[in-house]
Design goal:
It contains two helices and five strands, in the order βαββαββ. It is an alpha+beta fold. The chain has a single domain, classed as Alpha-Beta Plaits, CATH 3.30.70. A five-stranded antiparallel beta sheet has the order 2-3-1-4-5, with helices on one face. The N and C termini lie far apart (31 Å).
């Protein structure tokens, strides 16, 4: 049976007037650290290496139910520095490519 994977798609906005030598997307490391900490606590698993795909950066998580994974994705969307417009895509570990499942706008509304 396929395992649920949530892809977190974060926009890579242009960064005009970036100082020489400055990294335009420091939040990528923050998100990776956040997900790694959750993995260490047993909350989720990082499914695959995060990667740039066109105008978005994609993180992959698994190891919990869809609702829990979407809650983690929602937390990622609210981390300091993460650009607005972050979305999640619900997929499975046997998907032929990413970005094809149902898309969820983040952050999720509070209950």
């Amino acid at each position: 049976m396929p395992t649920t994977v949530v892809e977190i798609h974060v926009p890579l906005p242009p960064t005009p007037d970036l100082p020489d030598g400055a990294y335009p997307f420091p939040w990528i490391e923050e998100v990776e650290d956040f997900l790694s900490d959750l993995e260490d606590q047993g909350g989720v698993e990082i499914f695959d290496e995060s990667e740039e795909d066109g105008d978005v950066y994609v993180f992959f998580i698994t190891g919990a139910g869809e609702g829990d994974l979407l809650a983690v994705a929602s937390r990622v969307a609210t981390l300091p520095g993460v650009p607005a417009g972050t979305t999640a895509v619900v997929s499975t570990d046997d998907a032929e490519e990413f970005g094809l499942g149902p898309r969820v706008t983040l952050p999720l509304p509070a209950l």
